Amino acid sequence: MGYDIERFVGYVNEGLLCSICRDVLEDPLQAPCEHAFCTACIHGWLVHHSNCPEDRQVIDVALLRPLYRYMKNDLNRLQLHCRNREYGCEMVCSLESIDRHERECEYSQIPCSNAGCSVQVERRNLDGHLAVCEYRSRECPNGCGYTILSAEDTQHNCVAELRTELELLRSEMICRVEEAKHEMESRLDSQRRHMVQKESILQNEIEELKSQMSRMMSDVRSLMAAERQHRQELEQAELEKREL
Q1: CATH-assigned architecture of domain 5-104
Q2: Which of 63, 20, 26 is nearest to 42 (CA)?
Q3: Cell cycle among the record's keywords (predicted)?
């Protein structure tokens, strides 16, 4: 939908009106036949039709183009009243800057920022409303540090709130201790498994060394026996030599 033509100051050229809603173009698009439409209007029209609503020429979304620059400039220069005129805003500005003004307009109706409050007030009156809003929050004046809503003043009990806070802290502490305990147990189990694995590896290495030592002792005994045999053969040969 376009901008309500009643908001504009002075004459508005017919070419700057949407061919569908007949209001001043908002976010305009132009068909090949040069008829202009609000983007929302023409997209809604083409859901059920395939032609221009003015001259019935066939058009498609892909054929729509931005408005000619000179027409866009004429559109942006139009002067109109702020939409908050009914609330007291007397601002008149160009269409090009109206959105920026209305986002910051002191007469805009905005919701209260307090959770649970459904009241809408003018931006300029927001601070005054927040000062008396029944959903406003503040710190307990008795010093317990608890944040309370004005509507809860009569029900607030410092001792009860502190006890609740203490219970929450105790529960949180217990949870943290349990988490730390489980983490330590997990680490100990991991280290225990690692030590058992290392012990097994070392035991295997020791057995291998024992086996190697046993083979070496057997080889030494064999060498000593061979040496004795060789010495005996030498002595026998020496005796035979002397006899000869």
Answers
A1: 2-Layer Sandwich (3.30)
A2: 20
A3: no
